Amino acid sequence: MESQLYRGFVFALYQFSLLLGIVLLPIALLFGRMGLSLPVHRVVLRLEDAYAGATPS
User: What is the value of pTM for the model shown?
Assistant: First the structure.
């Protein structure tokens, strides 16, 4: 039961991080023109790895 709850929580966080990345895309493009970057991809990749580790094989 705890593993299902954890997997659901990580999946929800992963989906939220994808949504956040999409919403922040215009700001990221603006920052890219100024030579800065938003590290949203790191959050998405870490949550993807955590979700992949939580799912049964």
Answer: 0.74
The two structure tokens encoding residue 1: 């039961």
The residues, ordered by sequence, that sit 6+ positions from 20 with a Cβ below 8 Å of its Cβ are 40, 43
Please name which of 44, 38, 39, 42 lies closest in space to residue 11, comparing C-alpha atoms: 44
Q: Which two tokens stand for residue 46?
A: 């870490």
* CA dist., res. 57 & res. 52, Å (int): 9
Mean pLDDT, residues 27-50:
90
| Cβ proximity of 11 and 51 under 8 Å | yes
Residue/partner pairs of 18-22 with CB below 8 Å, 24 or more apart: 18/44
Which of 35, 54, 34 minimizes the C-alpha distance to 13? 54
